[in-house]
Amino acid sequence: MGVDVYQPAPVYPNGAERERAVEASGALSLSDDPDLQKIVEHVRGRYGTAMAALSIVYGDWQYLIATAGLPGGPYSRRTSFCGHAIMEAPDIFCVSDAA
Q1: Contact 26/37 with Cβ under 8 angstroms?
Q2: Is residue 78 part of a domain?
């Protein structure tokens, strides 16, 4: 699947279960973790991309907990690529032009 024009991200069918798993993992408290920061910086360099991020989709938000080339923090899930991508697993989610 891909997104050619803006479409709000759909709601995951077992959202409550996913949210409990995120809470149990403690991932949201890992913002600014130096090891995660090294990973995204390595990925950005390895693939020559302008940016890289590790994001967690939780509730109505996408949390960028480690970033390289863009600001971290919470972003609306409605406008996130990741909000779409989690709905497509295990298929490949492709955005041909993010502009």
Answers
A1: no
A2: yes
Residues 93, 81: Cα–Cα separation, whole Å: 9
CA–CA separation, 52 vs 65, rounded Å?
Answer: 11
Structural domain contains residue 9 = no
- Residue span of the structural domain in which 41 resides: 15-88
Within-domain flag for 10: no
φ and ψ at 11, to 5 degrees? -90, 130
What is the reported pTM?
A: 0.76
What is the rounded CA–CA span in Å between residue 70 and residue 81? 15
In this prediction, residue 79 has a pLDDT band, given cuts at 50, 70 and 90, of: confident
Q: Convert the pLDDT of each residue in 1-47 to its tens digit.
A: 555 556 667 777 787 898 999 999 999 998 889 999 999 999 999 98
Query: In the sheet where 61-68 sits, what is the strand order?
Result: 52-58, 61-68, 73-76
Number of domains in the chain: 1
